Each structure stands twice: as C-alpha cells, then as structure tokens.
Amino acid sequence: MASGKINVSVENIFPLIKKFLYSDHEIFLRELVSNATDATLKLKHLTSIGEAKVEYGNPMIEIKIDKEGKKLHIIDQGLGMTADEVEKYINQIAFSGAEEFLEKYKDSAKDSGVIGHFGLGFYSAFMVASKVEIITKSYKDEPAVHWTCDGSPEFTLVPHDKTERGTEIILHIADDSVEFLEEFKIRELLTKYNKFMPIPIKFGTKKEALPKPEDAPEDYKTEYVDVDNIINNPNPAWTKQPSDLTAEDYKNFYRELYPMQFDEPLFNIHLNVDYPFNLTGILYFPKLSADLQIQKDKIQLYQNQVYVTDNVEGIVPEFLMMLRGVVDSPDIPLNVSRSYLQADGNVKKISNYITRKVADKLKSLFNENREDFQQKWNDIKVVLEYGMLSESKFYEKAADFVLYPTTEDKYYTLAELKEALKDNQTDKDGKLVVLYASNKDAQHSYIDIAKEKGYQVLLLDSPIVSHLIQKLEADNENLTFARVDADHIDKLIQKEEETISKLSDDEKEKLKTSIETVVPKENYTVQLENLDSNAAPFIITQPEFMRRMKEMSASGGGGMFGMGNFPEMYNLVVNTNSELATNILNSSEDIQKDLVKQALDLAKLSQGLLKGEELTAFVKRSFETLK
C-alpha cells in the first residue's frame, strides 16, 4: 500500500476547483467521458503504430448509476495506467497526460483526436463527489491499482485484482449533488455534451425487436432482446468527406441536431480545412423571417467531437449567427473548463475562413442554379444583407450573388441592375436613380405611377435596407436610391423638360394659403408642383433623407442621433395643373376647406395614414356626399 500527499501548490485546491475553476458543475461528466475517450484513442494510436502489443478490439465507454450506493461509474477500455502513471498524472495536478502524449508522438499522433489539454479535467469530479476512486489496469503487463481520495490532499494507492485493461472512475456523489444519480439527468448530460463523441458510449440497455422468421406462424408475436443502449453517434456527418455524403445525409444530420425543427434547411455549407488550422463543420441556412430577431446560440461548437458551447461569438461571424449547424476545431483556444473562448490569432483566421467559405458556396449555388437561388432569396436575404454591412470581405464577394428583386419579380445583381436601368432612369444630372418600395401593397399607387413612366421599381423590404442603400450609394458613383413614395415621380427622376403651370404666381400663393389653413403644419409641408394634368391632385410623400435616417436610427446605429424620436414629417404635393386646384381657387372659403379636407384624407388613405377617428369621419362624410 502507498499513501502520500497530492503534489499541489496550495492545500485548498479542491475548494477552488469546485467553486471557481469550472463555470458549470454539470460539465464534470463531459470531462470524465473526454478523458475516457482520450485513453481509448491513445490506445488505438499505439496499436496502429505497433507500440502497444495488444488487441484494440471494439472498445466502448460505459456509464453506470448505482443509486442505492450513491455512486456513478465511468468505465473505459482504453490504455489504463500503471501505479507510476497514477502518481505522475493524477497526483500532480495540471500535468497533462494528453500534452505529454502529443509531444512524444507529435508526428504520428497529429490526427489521433486526443482531446485533453490541461490535466485538470479529472478533478472536476470533486465538484459533485465527496470521494473518488480510480481502478485502473494498464495495457502494459503490470498489476492494476486502486487510487482513492476524499477531496483532501490525502490519497491512497493500493494494488487491485482488476484483470481487464482500462480504467473505472467511481464517484461517491455528495449530498448536494444527488441529482446526478437520476437516470434522466445523466442521459440529458450525455446527450448534450457527448452526443457525437468518437467512441461508443453505453448507458444501460434497450429492447430491440428480433427479425420475424420467414416461416413464422400467423399468430407470431414479436420477440425482443436486450441490447447495449449506445447514446452517441461516433461518426457524425461533419467528420466525413463531402463526397461521401448525399443531400439526404445532410438533411438527416440536420434532424439529428435539431429534432424539434420541422422545416427543412434551404442548403448547407460543409467546412473542411487543415491548414493553417484544423476546422470541420456543417452550417445550414434555415428558413428565416424578414426581421432582425437574430436567433443566436443555434450553432454548436465542438472540440474533437466534444461539445463545448453554443455561444460561438468570435468564431462564427456575427451575420452568420442566424444559421444553424456545427463547427469543430482542435485549434480554438479555450480555458481549462473548455467553456470560454480565449482571444488569439486563430480565432480571427477561423472567422475569416468561414466568411470566405460561405461567400464561395453562395456564389456556387447562384451560378449552378440561379432560378432555385432566386426562389430562396426571401429566406436568406437578411443574412446576406447583414453580412454586406458587417464584413468587408463578404461585401466584396457579395456583388456576384446578392440580388435586387423588382415588384415584377425580376431579379438583378447590382451590375445587371445598372445596365437594365441606365437608359430610362438616369436623370438630367447623369445620376442613375434606383426606385424602390418597401411594401408592395401599401405603396401600390406610387409603384403604378412609376410603371406608367416605364420605370422599374425594386422591392426592398428588409429592416436594414436603409443602411444597405446608404453603403451602396457611398461605394457607387452617380447611383442613388429613392423610395417610390419619397416625392412625385417627375421629381424623383428629373428630366430636362419642365411642365408649365396653368396658374399665375399670385394664384399659386392664394392656393397654398387656402390649403395651409386646413393642413396641420406640424406634420405636413405644402409643396406646389407643376405636374401633368392627369396626375393625382394631392400626393403625400415622405422626404427620402428624413425617412431613411429615422429607419436607420430605429434599426440600430448609422442614423442621425435621436432621429428615431422625431415626429413623422410628410410633404403634401399639390398639382397646380389639376382640376381640383382650380376648383379650390374658385370656391368659397367653406367649400375650399371641405375640398382640401376631402382631398387630404384621400391622399392619406392611399398612404395608409388615415386611421381611427379620422377614418371614421372620412367614411361618414363620403357617404353623405352620395345622398
């Protein structure tokens, strides 16, 4: 029998581990299963290079609950430890066996999948256990040993009669952690953290139906047998080559990741790089709504198939946080609990790689099947537009596949759009004016007027469109965007010719005064315009600059400070060549007010601005004119 003190620099290391080192007590199981996986993968590597003269076989990791004895067992069939190795790796905290193994076999073990880095994972057991035992037998021809520690710096190490290779960790669960003796709790943790571990994990047994015999009688009853309940998938899709996977394989893996998600993903992007860092993974574009409610925490981060976190901020670019899937990299720096990212150069490189890979995939999808890409546009546009605003590298590549749809369901890239509009929508100053609507129904009358002129109108309805067009205008000389209801169409795209007014300057002044006595000045600015006599007599527009700044402010950043709190301001454009303008001028004061009020309400109605009490009064007044 041996006894002694664990070699630590402070006597109260265990309370520190329990309280501070690990951010979440439940990860003890992840750490211990990861250690068991390491031990098994190390053995696999040593047998493959002929250093371990044993049969590798088909090892698994087993988790067992002894509720009555208040014990939890983690059993592996890995390489085990000798007495000297227990002294070295268990009694000297923070001496990482995984690090030493990788250093010793760094050339041949590069792809062995060994997980551990810190030598502290084992001690996470003391977060939930009052006593921990290790019973282990090395693959080497040496006796098994039994190590015991009650959470103090004292331990015992004695021989044991274990004959099978591997290690068994026995946790004597503390009174404040008895939840970890419940089967549902352990299953939950194994499913969360170890669902894709590379070694099969057994947790109890399950019933499995035997095949029905060919000569079975009609009253044959299905027979069942108990089989090992393997709770993980050791070979998830992201560990395979894209060429070995079908479209159905990708969909099945999506369902495996998100069993409660019923919509099929639109498409996937398989990540696979081994230089200058290792990274694998699969990202899925789900169907998205056209708002900016970013559903973060949908992408899972793994390290050598060990679940780390669903907070991938910093690794995955922010605009891709709306995607789903898996990212796995052994080169992502973590602290000792594997729970938080640590900033270093690799993280930025990985983020840049993912941005580039997503852009390349989108370009490929666009080139291979543009029609299918266009059909999916509404489901992916928010992600892509956000990417253009937030990632300069993505913005550069996006010109090849980002689309600008019209209200007539035509789709253009920016280069195609410029070419299609240049002959008809270039104004007298040489600027190409891109008309757009944000709501096809609400702005129908304005769209219709533009179409009568032969103009095309884009449908840009994402919540960040104001930010996007601001950037496009800044980066494209002589290009400007104007919402179709920002002014009368002849003012939005000004040509050389000007329409002459039928009214004299004095008549115009009288007309304006008559209208301003009825129209509320705090919300409307009256503008007299010489328009075609067939154009609408009253048109309500919202100045492009003011509206855009308010929208940018409302959607976060980019807008003028405080603009989101400004009252809504509109222009009331009055067509001086309309018959109504003449009628107002030639009517008595009372009739003038009635005409202006009715015309204003009609204009407001066309913009969806007539509501509540005003709408009720308008309807009542309109019916009275029919009597």
From TrEMBL:
CDD domains: HATPase_Hsp90-like. ATP binds at E31, N35, D76, M81, S96, G97, T167, R338. InterPro entries: HATPase_C_sf, Heat_shock_protein_90_CS, HSP90_C, Hsp90_fam, Hsp90_N, Ribosomal_Su5_D2-typ_SF. Keywords: ATP-binding, Chaperone, Cytoplasm, Nucleotide-binding, Stress response. It holds the Pfam family HATPase_c_3. The keyword Chaperone applies. GO terms for molecular function: ATP binding; ATP hydrolysis activity; ATP-dependent protein folding chaperone; unfolded protein binding. Belongs to the heat shock protein 90 family. This is Chaperone protein HtpG.
